[in-house]
Amino acid sequence: MTVNGWIQIALYCAVVLALVKPLGSYMTRVFTGERTVLSPVLGPVERGLYRVSGIDSRQEQHWLAYTGAVILFHVLGFAVLYAILRLQAVLPLNPADQAAVAPDLAFNTSASFITNTNWQSYGGETTLSYLTQMLGLTHQNFLSAATGIAVAVALIRGFARASTGTIGSFWVDVTRATLYVLLPICIPYTLFLVWQGMPQTLSAYADATTLEGAKQTIALGPVASQVAIKMLGTNGGGFFNVNAAHPFENPTALSNFIQMVSIFVIGAALTNVFGRMVGDERQGWAILGAMGILFLAGVAVTYWAEANGSAVLNSFGLTGGNMEGKETRFGIAASALFAVITTAASCGAVNAMHDSFTALGGLIPLLNMQLGEIIIGGVGAGLYGMLIFVIVAIFVAGLMVGRTPEYLGKKIEAKEVKMAMLGILCLPLMMLGFTALATVLPAGLAGPANAGPHGFTEILYAYTSAAANNGSAFGGLTANTLFYNSTLAIGMLVGRFFVKIPVLAIAGSLAAKKTVPASAGTFPTHGGLFVGLLVGVILIIGGLTFFPSLALGPVVEHLAGAAGQTFSTGG
Amino acid sequence: MLRQLRPALVLLTALTVITGLAYPLAMTGLAGAIFPARAAGSLIERNGTIVGSSLIGQNFSGAGYFHGRPSATTAPDPADASKTVPAPYNAANSSGSNLGPTSAALAERVKGDLDVLKAENGSAPVPVDLVTTSGSGLDPDISPEAADFQVPRIAKDRKIAEDTLRDLVASHREGRTLGLLGEPRVNVLALNLALDDLAKR
Question: Which of A140, A315, A547, B138 has the CB geometry, 3.0–4.6 Å to A113, for a possible disulfide?
Answer without folding.
Answer: A140
